[in-house]
Amino acid sequence: MQWLSRKLFSPLQPLYMSGVLLVLLVACAVAPDQSDWIKIGQTTREDVVKRYGMPDLVIASEAGETAIYRPRAPKQSAPQVQIPTVQAGPLGTVTTRMEPVNSESGSRDTNGRLQERPEQELRIRYNAQGIVQELIR
Predict the structure, then answer these.
(1) I need a labelling partner for 55 at 20 to 30 A (CA). Which of 9, 88, 91, 103 fits?
(2) How many angstroms separate the CA atoms of 21 and 71, rounded?
(3) What pLDDT shows up at residue 61?
(4) Contact 40, 131 (CB under 8 A)
(5) Distance of CA 89 to the CA centre of its chain
(6) Which of 85, 106, 104, 107 is nearest to 96 (CA)?
(7) What residues does each domain of the chain span?
(8) What's the gap between Cα 46 and its chain centre?
(9) How far apart are the first and last CA of the chain?
(10) What is the pTM of this model?
(11) How far is CA 5 from CA 8, 9, 50, in A?
């Protein structure tokens, strides 16, 4: 019996309990929803387009339209492309060197920043005035 009580109340028990508690807390953590900023009845089509860019698909109806935003495809590593450039060198010589070509793909806003996209498909129904009426995830 004494052996059992030493095992149950060992000096490392608080450490074990802390570890179990930490695992439980991390398991309960939920990532914040990216579309929480969209308010039904307040957010306009222009606000959404400013943040997410143009929708991937628009379905028009008499009551308004539904914009569908899909997440970006995961980035695949593309081979780096380089082109030779020629520059004048000293004493009438010519030097060449390879310059990388930066091909950045993705939607950009007017300031040149990449626009965000939802992490999962998002459908936004607007009324005829362009105000958000429904958000479907």
Answers:
(1) 103
(2) 34
(3) 87
(4) no
(5) 46
(6) 85
(7) 35-74+115-137
(8) 20
(9) 57
(10) 0.53
(11) 5, 6, 64
Mean pLDDT, residues 108-130 taken together: 80
Instruction: Please answer whether residues 66 and 124 qualify as being in contact, where contact means their C-beta atoms are separated by less than 8 angstroms.
Output: yes
Angle at alpha carbon of residue 51, lines to 57 and 38, rounded to 5°: 85
Which tokens go with 67?
């914009």
Q: How far is residue 80's CA from residue 95's CA, in Å, rounded to a whole number?
A: 22
CA angle 56, 58, 62 (to 5 degrees): 170
Task: Identify the residue whose tokens are 């009551």.
Answer: 63
Q: What is the pLDDT of residues 80-95, one digit of tens each?
A: 788 888 888 888 898 8
Q: What is the 3-state secondary structure (H, E, C) of the chain?
A: CHHHHHHHCCCCHHHHHHHHHHHHHHHHCCCCCHHHHCCCCCCEHHHHHHHHCCCCEEEEECCEEEEEECCCCCCCCCCCEEEEEEEECHHHCEEEEEEEECCCCCCECCCCCECCCCCCCEEEEECCCCEEEEEEC
Residue type, 33: D
Strand partners, 54: none
